Amino acid sequence: MTDADTTLESVDILQILRYLPHRYPFLLVDRIINIRGDASCVGIKNVTINEPQFMGHFPEQPVMPGVLLIEAMAQTAGVIAIRAQQGEQERPRLVYFMTIDNAKFRKPVTPGDRVEFHMTRTAKKRNIGWYSGRALVDGVLVCEAQISAMMGAG
User: What pTM does this model have?
Assistant: First the structure.
């Protein structure tokens, strides 16, 4: 079977709400597509002007804070890590952010942008996963980082 023969899965916002404890205004992913188990996926964030961070960052020239882009990467990876666990009762409800390495911010993200968080697992040991992430807007790299997270009981 080739990659072209594989049907990739997706997760909508209602399913994301079942996997993550985050809620508005801190839930930063609207949909996850192209899921390959817990190995890779693409998270989608539709950036809108009515989000609370834009009242102060910056009122006359709104820019999505870089730390929120990194958090959205972590949430995207967290969903596929939790989702990959076996049974519904066995799934952890919390994923703890552990490290951020090599974070680079290449271009501002502004209201109206659709950000894609391309996450790839690079290593896994017991309940810890390491991921490489790239955030793109219209195919242009805006942010990148390596992160790790630990799954815990919820």
Answer: 0.92
